[in-house]
Specification:
Blueprint (H helix, E strand, L loop, with lengths): L14 E6 L7 H14 L4 E6 L1 H8 L6 H15 L6 E5 L5 H10 L4 H5 L2 H9 L8 H4 L1 H10 L5 E4 L4 H17 L8 E4 L27 H9 L20 H9 L2 H12 L5 H27 L2 H30 L2
Parallel strand pairs: 1-2, 2-3, 4-5
Amino acid sequence: MTDESSTESPKPPARVLSGMQPSGLLHLGNLVGALESWLALQNQYECYFFVADWHALSTNYRETQHIRRYTREVLLDWLAAGLDPDRSTVFVQSTVPEHAILHLLLSMIVPIPWLERNPTYKEKQEEIKGRDLSTYGFLGYPVLQAADILLYKPDLVPVGKDQLPHLELTREIARRFNKLYKPVFTIPKEYLTQFPKVPGTDGRKMSKSYGNTINISDPEPVVRKKLKTMVTDPARVRRTDKGNPDVCPVFDFHKIFSPQSIIDQVNRDCRTAAIGCIECKTLVGDAIVRRLTPIWESRAALAQRPETLDDLITTGQHKASRVASQTLAEVKEAMNI
């Protein structure tokens, strides 16, 4: 007697999608907040990772001259860190025009109040001073973000907790489309990253907008120089003062980068003034350099072969376009256009 269940096709792996803006060089927050999660995910799931160069226009529309270079720098960092284009589809957003077309179609059904209540809309305006962000592109970028996600019908989207409102808006847009026309889009779930917030050298969240980053591509002397300027426990003025690691951004770095033995040592010795801030920063600098050294070496080798990136961009475009064009055809059929 034949076991019918044995003839069933195996269930395909869940699909994952995420992206990063090329609005500057990638930093340690990007590495531990997203990229290292991607490296683990590519071993388990069908993954799509893209450089969101059109998104960079939402805040950098006056300074577009750097976007192409930063796009290649982002790809270099990804490959150097271990992202494997043989296991993941890696592509550049602007090479797949279906993103723009779906953005246009979705913008026809998204209520303006949905965009105005986006919690990061006003936060970003406060964060990025000196730029006029009263543009449709900035207000409507969550619709483009929704198009980026929904085109590939992912099951999971890696995000930090601060990005959950963006993903929920994508889900609302997908539900609205599916109800207005017919079910086309998968409702994606979040995949929370381990370190959603990495402090910058000034103690705020590490961000290109704040100018407080330690970049993945910074050479060792630059990394250590930036660490020397990093804020510590504000109450610890003199070397002999006892410190409080619980309020020190440098100790947050230790918890991310240092081995447990060093974390325990710093936690104990800072509270008794047995260690000073300079020594503490040297120890965490050692840990960061150990983490980055293999990336630096791989990055230097890749930079000598620019054709590798050219091939990656072309191959990624073809692979992503196959999926995106199929989804867009379903969207047009559902909308009768």
